[in-house]
Amino acid sequence: MRNNHATQLIFELSTTGRSGVVLPQCDVPVKQAETLIPDSLLQLAPPPLPEVTEPEVIRHFTNLSTLNMSVDTHYYPLGSCTMKYNPKRNERIAAWDGLAQLHPYQSEASIQGMLQLLFELQQMLGEISGLPAVSLQPAAGAHGELTALMVAAAFFRQQSQHRTKVLAPDSAHGTNPASARMAGFDFVTIRSQADGRVDVQHLKENLGDDTAVFMITNPSTLGLFDDQVQTIADLVHDAGGLIYLDGANMNAILGITRPGDFGADMMHFNPHKTFSGPHGGGGPGAGPICVTETLRSFLPCPTVAFCDESQMYFLDDRSEASIGRVRSFFGNVGVLVRAYCYIRTHGPDGLKRVSETAVLNANYLLSQVKQFLDVPHGDRCMHEFVASASPIKETTGLKQPAMDIAKRLLDYGFHPPTVYFPLTVPEGLMMEPTETESKQTLDAFAATLRTIAEEPAETLRHAPHTTKIRRPDEVMAARKPIVKWTETAD
Amino acid sequence: MPYTYNTPAQQKEMLEEIGARSVDELFDSIPDNMKLGRALQIPPALGELELTSHMQELARQNSNITHNTCFLGAGSYDHFIPAVVDSLASRGEFYTSYTPYQPEVSQGNLQVMFEYQTLICQLTGMDVSNASLYDGGSAAVEAMLMAISITRRNSRVVVLESVHPEYRQIIKTYFATLGTEVVTVADSAHLPNVLDENTAAVLIQSPNFFGNIEDVAAVAEQVHASGALLVCSVDPISLGLLKRPGDAGVDIVVAEGQSLGTPLLYGGPYLGIMACREEFVRRLPGRIAGQTVDQEGNRCWVLTLQTREQHIRREKATSNICTNQGLFALRAAIYLSVMGPQGMRDVADLCLQKAHYAQQQLTNLDRFETVSDLPFFKEFVIRDKQNDVAGLLEKAEDFNLLAGVALGRWYPELEDCLLIAVTEKRTVHEIDQLVEVLGS
Amino acid sequence: MNAEELLYCDTHEWVFVSEQDGQKIATVGISAFAVEQLTDLVYMELPAVGAAVTAGEEFGEVESVKAVSPLYSPVSGTVTEVNEGLPDNLDILNTDPYESGWIMKVNVSEELPESLLDHATYQRQCGEAS
To answer: Which chain C residues are Cβ-neighbours of A474 within 8 angstroms?
Structure first.
């Protein structure tokens, strides 16, 4: 039962003199801080944080949690985000002292179990991707992209090749162009054809001896496997460039095909998507990258290696050609532990079944949705598809029907699909059911969507009708940003 | 296949509805010659019981800090975490949700982001905070990139040698492809030699990697005189006691937020804190929650200033980051709320007292000496006059003591030195034991 | 200013050139059509007074909640004045884009580019685009 008093800010609950903790008495001889540190470096008063008790903190944050939709509570078909079930066993295991209470600078001998886990994960990701050299260091998918582009830059530097351009299709995630720029490359957008596949002719026109990397998301953000990928890879390789695969959509092809087998030289995984690490309200994720043997020596250091002589795992930072570090310590280990558990739980057949089920679910949902919404890119898809609400625009006069449908879904207790992405589909609704949803859920969702598509325009225009707040004013928020509470903010 | 539901009968029904004969047919768009055609060579599936025993076996081969006494620090610290932090952060509504794209059903996460941003401002004395970045190291490099974008000077950034060596390595890696020169100086006294009209920023850390507190305000004056920005990496726990960077003239503050309620986790995931002065808010990378009203005038929160970000600005974005560390920003928000001003002051004071006691006791021994007279907070360096740091650490491990971090790997001239961190969790008995073992 | 007397870029900036003390001063803004297309403007970044601008190149940015649009200068020269109050009161652009919604004044250093459009031609192009 939701508590309607829940939205006061923690600062508004503050009462001078309250506290949520009692710390121990100091058990060493106490000296005045002023005798240890010069006055000028000390702050007279402690930081002006709120003063609340433990029960207040518990009630406050517990009630805030109930204002979220989440995978544990709702169907969440957010396309491109792979919102699958997050196994509880993995949460529990990852929190064990023997895996969580380890300091990053402990001796290698004292963490052989952890190093073994990370070593085996490197090997498993290498096998799943078909790209044997693995770095677990990047902290998120976008970070993995950036790291891989730095690897490519280092490779070309070593080859004394001056290659300045990174290319990607117009349907790519915004992180692709942003990562390219951060890695010091110029970015070139390649058109997609009407059927959603890369316009190979346009690619050819842009390939040359300045081409460094072509970034491709395959299956694409439209949920289509681009069967030209091998041709594309050959063209790029002939021009002397490298292929980067954005692994956001790996949930469609586990054990079925491998990026390394269709021409990719580098890729990242999103373990928080594909291997079920929870999304945590926006993070943490992880972004391990896999590359070819040729590129191995450029990977960030350290990686985990095994010494045959001592029969010990160790942190290997010997590669002179390495780009260096992209993150402090080893990486987002907590997320990697969950990914390890997930892969070990499934095994080879299980991982393949994950993708088969995800693709079956998506195709089934597509077969239902196309009965009342436009699906511009065909009757079949991989793990997700993009419907278009454009026709509704004409029949109802709604200006933003995809947004209106999304908001109306909230009234029916479903998290909406991703809207207005990729940019190539007008009024796009990108749906990714994942493998952990049942036919019953998909049926209920499709039936609801159909109901909504037939509802009066007015009902949609003013949706949602039942949520605690409705259509917040984003213009006001952006014009005069209020990004923290102050006593006079209200 | 433990987490899927469809029965063979349902699968058949679904295929009929799709108009496909088999699941294999759904993969027809993948050319046969690209298909793997064999099973993945990974170990066979494990049930929950088998997985649990396998993981127990791995966990057993790690010496954890619950069964050992941890004096390791160097950017990752064994601080006390109140039970409420785990209790609240393990709610599925928090950890199984995603970025708040739909504000109507994400007010919980958005309000937490807004509260987190406010708490970070209160702690650091800065005007605005983002909703967090990956970790302290990548936050430092993002701050340098931000400073370049603000000052429009891109030929040089300056880093003090006393900044965490791994942060410095990250900066070196990022700038290797961007053509910006990274100049490292031994200490702030050398700044006048390297600051010029093309220098975008100076990165300083306080307390620095060796635990010493820098005179940030003095450095700020020097840096600003040259038109560059001062980026300061801080230990958030120290701000219970030390002057806030916002009050010392810092332009951009970054920090590793792990100390605020996150366990050690063998180095991650952690929390990248980043806050700045008001006028830089539109150059701040990462997600930001902002206050607004809904259609009925109810106060509520949304993601705001989104035009800074990659999904809109694409190749012109100042950063490629597209998430925050939501779960760890939540942990920090809970931690700071439950600690309050007095709790933060008490923790900081306990760290200060215990670290000074430990340093005193150790340097009373003939074998050890200090390397610096500068004031320090919870971490300090001692030199082993017998130059056998490895031997000391090994011996300590026999007594279940993780005695310190050897500095030689980053600073060859300090190969006989140990960096020792003492948090509020260490008792006088543990410290005395460390002194006894290292001195014996 | 009368919209019909202005010249336009195909990127939707307008310009009006007048003579002052023998100097050619160009006043620059964005068209009503652009304001309508961008919807709900939230932020504008102005150039600095004294900055050099080049015809056809970016001199600032205007943002709506979910879009950023570069502003391209119709003329080359030096910025002599900017409309300081505009970023805090972007609603002016909805009501009065050609008068109080001006963005910058430029001391023109080169001939006006030939690519500038008169009002009728510009209107026709906008008609085709929408």
So the answer is: 65
Yes or no, beta carbons of B312 and C43 under 8 Å apart: no
Tell me whether residues B72 and A380 touch, CB distance under 8 A: no
CA distance B207 to B243: 11
Domain coverage including residue A50: 10-65
What is the side-by-side strand order in the sheet with B229-234?
B128-129, B272-276, B252-256, B229-234, B199-206, B156-160, B181-185
- Using the Cβ of C40 and the Cβ atoms of chain A, whether some distance falls under 8 Å is answered with yes
pTM, 2 dp? 0.96
Q: For chain A, give the mean pLDDT.
A: 95
Provide the domain count of chain B: 2
Q: Does residue A77 fall inside a structural domain?
A: no
Q: Which of A296, A330, A345 is the last residue of a domain?
A: A345
Longest dimension (CA), chain C: 43
Query: Do B303 and B378 lie in a common domain?
Result: no
What are the chain C neighbours of A475 within 8 Å (beta carbons)? Answer: 40, 42, 65
**Region A150-155 average pLDDT:** 98
The residue from B284, B302, B335 where one domain ends is: B335
B346 interfaces chain A, CB cutoff of 8 Å = yes
On whether both B411 and B301 belong to a single domain, the answer is no
pLDDT at A490 over 60: no
Q: Position of tokens 């952006």?
A: A478
How many structural domains compose chain A?
Answer: 3
Q: What is the pLDDT of residue C129?
A: 63
Last residue of a domain, one of B282, B307, B335: B335
Complex-level ipTM: 0.97
Residues A271 and A373 grouped into a single domain: no
Quote the CA–CA distance of B163 and B209 in Å, as a whole number: 6
Q: Structural domain of residue B164, as residue ranges?
A: 84-335
CATH code, domain with C46:
2.40.50.100
Same structural domain, B198 and B298: yes
Look at residue B1 in the predicted model and tell me its pLDDT. 64
Q: Least CA distance to B316: which residue of chain C? A: C68
Q: Which two tokens stand for residue A249?
A: 């959509």
Q: Are residues A224 and A184 in the same domain?
A: yes
Q: What's residue A398's pLDDT?
A: 93
Report the neighbours of B using a cutoff of 3 or more CB pairs below 8 angstroms. A, C
Q: How many CB pairs under 8 A join B and C?
A: 16
Is residue A318 domain-shared with residue A341, that is, in the same domain? yes
A479: nearest CA partner in chain C = C42
d(CA A24, CA B73): 21
